[in-house]
Amino acid sequence: MKHMVVEDADNLESCLCQVGKVFDIPSMLSGPQARPQIIHYYFINRLTLLFYNWDGFFHYGISRNGKYEADDHKAHVRILEGYVRQTNAKKVMELGSGLGPNIAFLATRNPRVAFDGVDLSNKPLHRHAKLPNARFCFGDYHDLRQFEDNSYDIVFVIEALCYSTDKSRVLREVRKKLRDGGLFIVIDGYQRDRAKPLSSSEEAMWGLIAKSLACETIERVDVVEDYMQKEFSVVVAQDLTERVWPSLFRFEPLARFYFSHPAFARAVNTFVPHDVVKNTVHILLLPISVQRQIGCYFIHVLQKDG
Questions:
Q1: Measured on CA atoms in the order 300, 159, 164, 282, is the torsion positive or negative?
Q2: Could you tell me the pTM of the whole model?
Q3: What's residue 125's pLDDT?
């Protein structure tokens, strides 16, 4: 499914103007997005996440045929399950396990594998937390000392490494926990590495996308790959951007309606929490960023050398 870069037709300037009629853009761009803000964002969005996907999957779907299907949200865990079975893994950890759907899917289908999840909220859905081979722990992935060193076959993270402003530290922590030959699998969004610098409007767009997702910043993929290569061998680096297009566009018409009626949007903002309504910003702008070859989505499979 090919999408052309249409910088003159995507109405970025108009979109930013519409966002500015509803939100205080300078305040959004300057606001901190550290641990307290991230915890609050996910706490306040808990019901929103379940509206997005009842099983608790909050990540974008990976589509096979260019059309969004509900099952697309399970593509990530099906990829992970392939590595679990291929490596005959016995012990697996997820960073940023959230409501627990990824571990629940894998634990149900792989009952002889022990799964640990670590998250700042430590509030998985009750039906996920009851699984006998799944354990959900409170913690920060920058400090994994509560988990045994050299004991995991696979560690994975889906759309959560982006919240770290010290990814080198996370990578070092994960390396300690993995056995020799163990895998760290990262599926996440990034800014694409490209020669053409961002315009001022594109910089504003990219900053708004990050802050509306409760990220301090979303780094370039080549910068993050440099961090990865210092601790691991990169086995796979696959660009999945085209395959998340259908999921990216799923709610875009609603966001366009919201911002095209600023009086209505401001009225909504008076009774809906800011951390909920600000999601409309990245829903509106992410598709433009991908069209302009700025945003991208990758899977990296990293291996700990012996």
A1: positive
A2: 0.94
A3: 81
Q: And the tokens for 290?
A: 């991908």
CB 137, CB 163: distance < 8 Å? no
Domains of the chain listed by start with CATH number: 12-303 (3.40.50.150)
* Token pair for 178: 């993995």
Confidence at residue 47, expressed as pLDDT on a 0 to 100 scale: 78
- Rounded to whole angstroms, how far apart are CA atoms 208 and 211? 5
pLDDT at 272 over 60: yes
If DSSP codes are grouped into helix, strand and coil, which group holds residue 233? strand
- Nearest Cα neighbor of 299 from 231, 217, 244 is 244
Of 133, 81, 121, 120, nearest to 102 (Cα)?
81
Closest to 159 (Cα-Cα) out of 136, 186, 141, 138 = 186
DSSP result, 102-127 = HHHHHHHH-TTSEEEEEESS----HH
